[in-house]
Amino acid sequence: MHSLINHFRIAGLSVSTGSVRRSFIADGQANGIPMAQLERVAKTIGLRDRMVSTPDVTALDLCEDATRRLLSEMNLDASSIDAIIFVTQTPDHSQPNNASLLHGRLGLSKSTLAFDLAQGCAGWVTGLHQAALLCAHGGAGRVLLCAGDTLSHLTNKNDRAADPLFGDAGSATIVERTGQPNPMHFIFGADGKGASSIIVPAGGARQPASELTRIETADTSGNLHHAENLHLDGAEIFNFSLREIPPAIQSVMQHGGYTVASTDALILHQANKFIVESVALKVGFAKDKAPAGIVEKFGNQSSASIPCALIDALGDALSQKPLKLAGCGFGVGLSWGAFAGEVGPLILAPIQPYPASP
Q1: In which domain, by residue range, is 237 found?
Q2: Does 269 qualify as catalytic in the annotation?
Q3: At what angle do helices 98-106 and 59-74 cross, to 10 degrees?
């Protein structure tokens, strides 16, 4: 699906990460994995450090912290927010939604719209599209888009295929209505037949959590997990990424009249370094225009990874001037969302762990 939306802008960005730093090398050595193997994987996949949250900290907490810091940085009152969109797959409860809980924490007006989107790695782009629609066509002047997950809480510590990948983070994005055209193009797609490639089998209505769903089993590689853990099919995810994502990026750039030469940067979901570099190469972007090192600092942050990449890789430039950007989020579903448009200048709050160090 292609969509073109005008008369909105991204006004501010903030990201709060988990407060615990985990090292891929140190964890691997503790599990008896040879150093040469660890270094080879770290170099190829981009696994170095990741920031995870403590068990008592949720995506709601991380996004609340990111929101409060961003509102302070922008000198905005929370009462100016007309809608909250909360993108997460790790909500505090099955009911009520995280947006309503954050609405209460921030003390917003009863006239404020609040809803969740159950999206993963494509979620920030999907949420941005919904926020833009509310600003351009729905009467909202300012929308708070929160996107984040605590996926490290869902992985099994003895699953080397999944556990080393994920960091935890929550992002806050302020989207505002403007009187200027400023078009942004979006492309969305899905392949539900591949849904089992990234899945938590138990814990929902289809297979409720029980003692049986917490019985661990080993796969052919010796990785342990149970049905309430996040399961990944790495080979299929890689194939999906190279099959679907480059055409989506090329399509959205074509709709926007962008070329590789005229685009300042390609910002991709930071799944891992190898996937980011492979997708960028297939589209035709040089490494210096397609940041891929964010995952080495924070881990795969699900829907918060694009905001984190924007701040970490392009923050200095974005705070000063507009940039022509293309990007894509992709993953669980399987689903993807690509965008092309001008972003900036905007206000950024620094990437910061929560709780912050004393």
Answers
A1: 184-346
A2: yes
A3: 40
